[in-house]
Amino acid sequence: MEKQEKAKTRNVAVEFWRVIIAIAIVGFHIGWIIARTCNGDNGFYMETSNWFFGSSEVLLVFTVTAGYFLMAHHKKLSTKAEYNERSASSRAWEYTWSRVKSLIPVLIVGYVLGAVICTKFYYPKYGIQEVCTMLVNSAWEFLGFHSVGLRSTGGEFFNLNGPLWFISAIIIVGYFLYWAVCKNEDFTKGILAPFGFIFLAGWWCFTGTRAAQTGWSTFGSQLASTNGMGGAATDATATLGFNNGFIFVLIGMLAGIILYSLLSSLKDKKFSAGTNFVLTIVNVVCTVLLIWYVLYQPTYFNLERWTVALLCIVVIGLSLLNVDLLSKFLNNKYTNKLLAYLGSISLYIYMLHYPVAILILRIFGENTEATKYNFWQIYIPSVLVTIILSMATKVVMDKTFLKKKEIKSAK
After folding, report:
1. Given this model, what pLDDT does residue 228 score?
2. ∠ CA(200), CA(18), CA(217), 5° rounding?
3. E-strand stretches of 175-264
4. Residue-wise DSSP of 131-148
5. pLDDT digit string (tens) for 87-98?
6. What is the mean pLDDT of the chain?
7. Selection from 72, 32, 34 nearest residue 54 by Cα
8. Are 367 and 40 in contact (CB under 8 A)?
9. DSSP 3-state helix, strand, coil percentages of the chain (rounded to 5)?
10. Per-residue pLDDT for 328 more than 90?
């Protein structure tokens, strides 16, 4: 009876991190938008002391959990004979299509809002002809291939909802990894995931590259950075490489697959009180460091990028293991439903916040040196409006696309 009750209780410790990072990334993009668009080359007219710049690295939390749950999805279905009899490509396409169906309506909303708000408020000097050109040239972006480099070379002029590269990257990388798992699970878990993670992560750390869809990386001749993102290339560069953001997502999802294998071997292990205490201390320390990094990214004790990545993997791993006191605290019965709900709209928050932030920014008027924005007066209303819009989106999704999916599964 106790085991049945425990099975019904959802582990929401991971959802806590997903919603925290989603809300923090709003602050990162607000600061980035204001800093880059306030007045061109005339200066950054904004209060820059604290706008969650570190959240761009902690975004790895979403990629690690995506890899972990991809593996969990495969393992759950692999117990069915009819599933195993199908080809790897068939199963991979089915998995990818299920992700697309659950996210494509929100992607469309995000791009439509981006097209309307960004062209009307972000680029007010352009007319209907320029706007139509932007939309046509952004066809690949609308199809979700922004993350692999299939994007307009027009720069910011064509950036309708830039953060959506991350969602499409998870979907695209997810297809290839799911195919690999279906084709040879043991090889993927034992060779591909650990070797790929070690090789890519080591190279990533050595070159100082960071996650961004505007950067381009090569293996071998590393190009000098021209945009602050590391490994930048231009359309005149004859080289073979990959989009930085795509590699960032791939590294995180490989880590998630490794984490699933590790936690699966520990799921039946009984931990002593002393071990649980040590794990609690580790989780608390890593949690404090991550939150500190997201809020301040302090220059006097600046954590390196892959130190932060390790902290992300540790807190997600301990949250999923759910044996230490901090994880159990986050899973208390009083806030369980709240965190589960907030976690369910965390991706919606991420997908919809960019055009909302631009709209709020423009409502406040022109940003000048004399009337520079305060970060919090833009951030707080942007978060509130984005959460409300995400809640409304969830209601619509639950009554339409997601409802149909549940009925089909029940049958």
Report:
1. 38
2. 25
3. 216-217, 242-243
4. HHHHHHHTHHHHTT-GGG
5. 999 999 999 988
6. 80
7. 32
8. no
9. 75, 0, 25
10. yes
Pairwise CA distance, residues 323 & 382, whole Å = 36
The pair phi, psi for residue 373, each rounded to 5°, is -70, 145
Q: Whole-angstrom Cα distance, residue 270 to residue 251?
A: 31
**Cα→Cα distances 120→94, 125, 231, 252, Å:** 38, 9, 33, 36
Strands 242-243 and 216-217: antiparallel
CA-CA distance, 374 to 51, in Å (whole number)?
10
**Nearest CA to 163 among 205, 99, 107, 218?**
107
Q: Indicate the pLDDT class of residue 156, thresholds 50, 70 and 90.
A: very low
Question: What is the per-residue pLDDT across 382-396, written as a single tens digit (0 to 9) for each?
Answer: 999 999 999 999 998
Torsion angle in degrees (nearest 10) through CA of 144, 146, 149, 152: 120
| DSSP sequence for 262-275 | HHHHHTTPPPPHHH
From CA 28, how far away is CA 309, in angstroms rounded?
A: 18
Q: And the tokens for 32?
A: 């980035």
Q: Which residue has the tokens 């050109």?
A: 133
Q: Which residue's entry shows tokens 């919090």?
A: 376
pTM metric for this prediction:
0.86
Greatest C-alpha distance within the chain: 69
Domain ranges of the chain: 10-410
What residue type is 366 in one-letter code? E
Dihedrals φ, ψ of 369, to 5°? -65, -35
Check: CB of residue 212 under 8 Å from CB of residue 245. Answer: yes
> What backbone torsions phi and psi does residue 116 show, to the nearest 5 degrees?
-75, -50
pLDDT bucket at 222, cuts 50 / 70 / 90: very low
46 or 99: which leads in pLDDT: 99
> Which pLDDT value is given to residue 170?
92
- b/e burial code for range 82-108 (CB count within 10 A of at least 16 → b): eeeeeeeeebbeebbeebbeebebbbe
Q: Could you tell me if 308 and 286 are in contact, meaning their C-beta atoms sit under 8 angstroms apart?
A: no
Is the pLDDT at 142 greater than 80, yes or no? no
The residue type of 406 is E
Of 131, 130, 110, 124, nearest to 29 by C-alpha is 110
